[in-house]
Amino acid sequence: MPMLPDRPSDRALIGGEWIATRTTLEVEGPSHGEPISQIARCGAGEVDAAVRAAEQAFSGWSEWTARRRGEWLLAFADVIENDVDRLAALECADTGKPMSQARGDIGACARYFRFYGGAADKLHGETLPFEGGFAAMTLREPYGVCGQIIPWNYPAQIFGRCVAAALAAGNTIVLKPAEDACLSVLRLAELAHGCDLPAGVLNVLPGLGREAGAALAAHPGIHHLSFTGSPETGTLVAQAAARHHVPVTMELGGKSPQIVFADADLDAALDAVVRGIVQNAGQTCSAGSRLLIQEAVAETFLDRLAARFSALRCDAGEADADCGPLINARQKSVLESRLAAARADGVRVLAKGYLAETAPAGGHFVVPQILTDIPDGHEVLREELFGPVLVVQRFTGESEALAQANATAFGLCAGVWTADGGRQWRLAKQIRSGQVFVNNYGAAGGIELPFGGVGRSGHGREKGFEGLRSFTRIKTVAIRHG
Ligand code: NAD
Fold first, then answer.
1. Distance CA 89, CA 317 (A)
2. Whose CA is nearest to atom 10 of ligand 1?
3. At what angle do helices 183-194 and 84-95 cross, to 10 degrees?
């Protein structure tokens, strides 16, 4: 594959200018393992310049009326949609995800700007009953400069989720995309810049996590920090932010169960279980990576599931197969060694997909697979594998299903498949997670639905109106008038 056109992918956007860094990093395409671009390698100096630019831009941007900010976001949503071919081609080449999923991600990115564009002028405080002679109220104010550290699995979608909400609320942004995949983010920044976003409102700094990411997390000029990625890096970021008492939103992954009861619509459940783990090669924080199946239907459901997995084809992103590669060689080798260790512990591979003959030899492919016969408490039941690997457990009754569902430190999403209304409600209340979907899974991206974790999955909420509120702080005003 030829190198992608690189303007301005080898630069950082700081204060409205595309700045070259002293050195650059090579980006490889996961579908074939060959270089596709160079990106800037920002460090502490660039972070400092970007935070100062964002600070300078803040007063102007936050003084735009909420309606005017909203109108800018709505216009930008159109610009993203008009550029879908280019953006999706970058996302597909950079992440390896199948082209149709890349196109869907760009559509979702535009929808974030449309949702928060419409919401910008609906955000308000409250009046409060207080003692006589006072008018008391809360104001919702932007934080100021928001630092945002985002991962490689959904660069365009997570850009939309963080940037649209923060801008709508009146903040300015310094964003560090992931070194493994940031070309769509750079293109989005270029488009925003071309749409007359005032200089310094959005600054984008590609680079390594331990350099640009660490410098951003530790910078005293940041007023709010959003992080999406691994729990381990999340801990480092939260510790750095704590030194300056900066509030953080942490989105750290999951080990989400899909619980299928015998009385469920099993056809619908089957589709959702396959989709929930194969999408983006399982590299999704909210992947439905555990299947809990009721004994009474386990044999037939697993037979059908095995048939579906055996037909799953893996190929380069551009081939738009069922499943693309993992993001890089390291993720592939870590996953393969964990799978080998699990097999050595007696875990059985019930079925797996296949690699297309056309799949490039250098691609980081791991075919989708189902693991069964897993010893209780085994690490593959508890820890995120971040690949297209579904682990299966059986249960007899509701209380056992609930115990299995809650037997990880994560708590991001859950799917409950049952026709019993009472059980739907009981489990929705008792499952320890930020979202529960009943007789569906993932609600098609759910931009309107607050999203975030409990426990090791993180804290704070993104998406929906709650996500907008997260980018504001409350000021209480009490005016004595009589
Ligand atoms: P990571 O958490 O290290 O990287 C996420 C982001 O944090 C990237 O932008 C990275 O540059 C940045 N970063 C890395 N080190 C940093 C530091 N010291 N300070 C500040 N920022 C830093 O994730 P990874 O190494 O790319 O992937 C490892 C594992 O993380 C995956 O296997 C998966 O389990 C998990 N992960 C989760 C998500 C998610 O959506 N929750 C996304 C990506 C990866």
1. 9
2. 209
3. 160
Angle at 99 between CA 166 and CA 152, to 5 degrees: 45
Ligand 1 centre distance from Cα of residue 213 (Å): 10
Q: How far is the CA of 107 from the centre of ligand 1 (A)?
A: 24
What distance in angstroms lies between residue 383's CA and the mean position of ligand 1's atoms?
15
Percent of the chain, pLDDT > 70? 98
Q: Is the C-beta atom of 212 inside 6 A of ligand 1?
A: no
Closest CA to 226 of 291, 176, 283: 176
Counting beta carbons within 10 angstroms of the beta carbon of residue 481, is it exposed (0 to 12), middle (13 to 18) or buried (19 or more)?
Answer: exposed
Count of helix runs (H) and strand runs (E) in the chain: 16, 22
Measured in whole angstroms, how far is the alpha carbon of residue 269 from the centre of its chain?
23
**Of 153, 100, 179, nearest to 388 (Cα)?**
153
Looking at ligand 1, which atom is closest to the CA of residue 253? 41
Residue entry with tokens 């919401």: 119
Instruction: Supply the pLDDT for residue 62.
Output: 87
Q: Which residues have a catalytic role annotated?
A: 251, 285
Write phi, then psi, for 399 (nearest 5 degrees): -70, -35
Nearest atom, ligand 1, residue 214 CA = 19
211 Cβ below 6 A of ligand 1: no
16 contacts 156 by C-beta, under 8 angstroms: no
Please tell me whether the overall predicted TM-score, pTM, comes out greater than 0.90 for this model.
yes
Q: Which three-class secondary structure state does DSSP give residue 19?
A: strand
Q: What is the pLDDT of residue 8?
A: 59
Taking the C-alpha atoms of residue 117 and residue 169, their distance in angstroms, rounded to an integer, is: 10
State residue 232 phi and psi, 5-degree precision: -65, -50
Q: For residue 39, which of 56, 17, 20 has the smallest C-alpha distance?
A: 20
Domains of the chain: 11-252+460-479 (3.40.605.10), 257-446 (3.40.309.10)
CA dihedral 382, 386, 389, 395 (to 10 degrees): 30
Identify the residue whose C-alpha is closest to ligand 1 atom 35. 230
Q: Which residue's CA is the closest to the ligand 1 atom numbered 15?
A: 209
Index of the ligand 1 atom closest to the CA of residue 177: 9
Residues 110-119 pLDDT 10s: 999 999 999 9
Whose CA is closest to 463, among 437, 482, 440, 445? 445
Q: Is residue 449 predicted with pLDDT exceeding 70?
A: yes
